[in-house]
Design brief:
InterPro entries: Thioredoxin-like_sf (IPR036249), Thioredoxin_domain (IPR013766), TPR-like_helical_dom_sf (IPR011990)
CATH architecture of the largest domain: 3-Layer(aba) Sandwich
Order of helices and strands: EHEHEHEEHHHHHHHHHHHH
GO molecular function: protein-disulfide reductase activity
Shape: elongated
Number of helices: 15
CATH topology of the largest domain: Glutaredoxin
CATH class of the largest domain: Alpha Beta
Low-confidence stretches: none
Pfam families: Thioredoxin, TPR_19, TPR_20
Protein name: Putative thioredoxin
Strand content: 5-15%
Number of strands: 5
Strand order of the largest sheet: 1-3-2-4-5
Structural class: alpha/beta
Number of domains: 3
């Protein structure tokens, strides 16, 4: 059986496999080729081990070939399932079973798919794999997203992707008991961004533009400044006010600024996607 989550047990390795259940739950599967029911269940169990992605190891034992081990376990019926956690048997099923009964048994003892996804994402964040962790965290169902631990990890990913406003929103909902050193470090990053994002140069340009709201050259300059401090939504909004009436504003220079910002934000960015759609609706 060729899967990282499945292995065949024999008299040479079964003690090691049993000992390994201290580190990873082991689902022992006692079967035999002469028992049709047990042979038919094997591929379903392999698929289940694959779906659980390492939450348990499937250890299959052919009782016809390994009769002494089957006798040590006192196997009475085929197939027999036994779940070992921390070196101890915690649950089991004897005789033919629908796969649903085995899933129910696993659900009683192992973390859910969501919990496994969260653990995987948190591990990625700790290793600074923000690009990989961000979609996992964003796609979690709403109840899981309300956990403070998840919100903090999501905020860290958003900060790494320079999505400061969304990160600030996540951090604003962290309960007091979770406002530890980790939280304070993330808040400090947001505050540094906000200080840089409202520089005297930007304030001066905003003031001048408010007096001359149709000054396209000034708007283009301000949008470029916004972009430099990651205020990209404001930059795109400002440019779009001019471009929606004339795509050739400033002889195409403004459209170039607009496209450069979209390109920097990349394909997956929701703000960029929205403005791309608006641009396409004008072009086509």
């Amino acid at each position: 059986m060729h899967s990282p989550h499945t292995l065949d047990v024999n008299q040479h390795n079964f003690r090691d496999v049993l000992a390994n259940s201290v580190h990873q739950p082991i689902l022992f599967y006692f079967w035999a080729p002469m028992s049709d029911e047990s042979a038919q269940l094997t591929p379903q169990l392999q698929q289940l081990a694959q779906q659980y992605g390492g939450a348990f190891q499937l250890a299959t034992l052919n009782c016809q070939e390994e009769q002494s081990i089957a006798a040590q376990f006192g196997i009475q019926a085929l197939p027999t399932i036994a779940l070992f956690i921390n070196g101890q048997p915690v649950d089991g099923l004897g005789g033919p079973q629908p796969i649903e009964a085995i899933k129910e048994m696993l659900t009683r003892h192992l973390p859910s798919q969501e919990e496994r996804t969260i653990q995987q994402a948190l591990q990625m964040v700790s290793e600074q794999q923000y690009e990989q962790a961000l979609p996992l965290l964003i796609e979690l169902d709403e109840p899981w997203k309300t956990q403070a631990e998840v919100k903090l990890a999501l905020a860290e990913c958003l900060l790494a992707n320079r999505r400061f406003d969304e990160a600030k929103e996540q951090l604003s909902a962290i309960p007091l008991e979770y406002q530890d050193g980790y939280y304070k470090r993330l808040i400090a990053q947001v505050e540094l961004y906000e200080q840089a994002a409202d520089s005297p140069e930007i304030q001066a340009l905003e003031s001048t533009l408010s007096q001359n709201p149709t000054d396209a050259k000034m708007a283009n300059e301000l949008a470029s400044q916004y972009h430099q401090v990651q205020r990209d939504e404001e930059a795109l909004d400002l440019l779009w006010r001019f471009l929606k009436n004339d795509l050739n504003t400033l002889e195409g220079e403004m459209k170039k600024t607009f496209m450069d910002i979209l390109s920097t934000l990349g394909q997956g960015n929701p703000i960029a996607s929205r403005y791309r759609r608006q641009l396409y609706s004008l072009l086509y």
